[in-house]
Amino acid sequence: MNAPATRRARSSSTAVRRPGDILFNGASLGSAVLILLILAGVAFFLVMEAVPALTAPAEEISGGEGFFAYVWPLVFGTVVASVIAMLLGTPVAIGIALFVSHYAPRRLGNGIGFVIDLLAAVPSVVFGMWGMAVFAPRLGPLYEWLSQNLGWIPIFGDASATGRTLMTASIVLAVMILPIITSVSREVFLQTPRLHEEAALALGATKWEMIRTAVLPFGMPGVIGGTMLGLGRALGETMAVAIILAPGVFSWNFIGAGNATIPAEIALNFPEAAGLRLSELIAAGLVLFVITLAVNLFARWIVDRRAEFSGAN
């Protein structure tokens, strides 16, 4: 090693860290530790408060068949409503993001993006009232047609005359998660290296082929991340689902009355709950907490697996 290189190595190793660097590093580490402590505190609270419901005799739990028999229909309603919302909302959100980022003129794209972002500011109770008063009655005839022509499929059994069904709640949830997935996907697509796009076009690719071979692979980890954020919103949505759904017994019928979700069950019953009933609701919240954590860990695993093939690194 020559003398200048030796002096630079010695000076860099003995350089005094600036107070600003020390403060920033400490703040970053403290924030990360604080997040972990809050998460651990929430988990500890849920577990301790749920123990009475998890250990109580089956006949003392709502329904008289034990906690898991009580919570299973709620888990079913929560997961199914969220999955349907994702199936309906994700393709539309990705399509909007691609149109805004690569097809629309800049001024039009900025306007559409602004309008989509405004949807995120609409309170969930407004979506719930819109779904119950406007959306549900107009879906009633469609549900009747599905029941008459596809009634042999369990999910299309007897239709609800009011339209306040699990399917209606899922469609409203799909609208609610649109701005989250669209915003994240749009920003990721805009970060695609320009050289990648130009190289694809120079090789004779059409615009769609360029998007399929350069933009989508690069942005897929971000799209997955945005999709998981939308799924988290759908899993935890409370007021919109509570307003739209007409609570009832468990049913595989998506267009009939009945079914409920964990957030809606907690919101509707928590104010008057006490004793073991309160523990039941907190235990249901613990189940939702575990589901959400598992979904996010799975999404993180998918993103880590795809990142090395995306070109993002």
Question: Can you walk through the features of this model?
Answer:
By secondary structure, the protein is mainly α. It has a single domain, classed as MetI-like (MetI-like fold, Orthogonal Bundle), CATH 1.10.3720.10. Helix content is 77%, strand content 0%. It has eleven helices and no strands. The C terminus is likely disordered.
- SSE run: HHHHHHHHHHH
Mean pLDDT: 81
The CATH superfamily label reads MetI-like
Kindly provide the name of the CATH class.
Mainly Alpha
Domain ABC transmembrane type-1: 75-299
Pfam family, one: BPD_transp_1
Function: Part of the binding-protein-dependent transport system for phosphate; probably responsible for the translocation of the substrate across the membrane.
Main location: membrane
Produce the secondary structure layout.
Elements: H1 3-14, H2 19-55, H3 67-103, H4 106-119, H5 124-150, H6 166-190, H7 194-202, H8 207-236, H9 239-244, H10 262-269, H11 276-310
Helix pairs in contact: 2-11, 3-4, 3-6, 3-8, 3-11, 4-6, 5-6, 6-8, 7-8, 8-11, 10-11
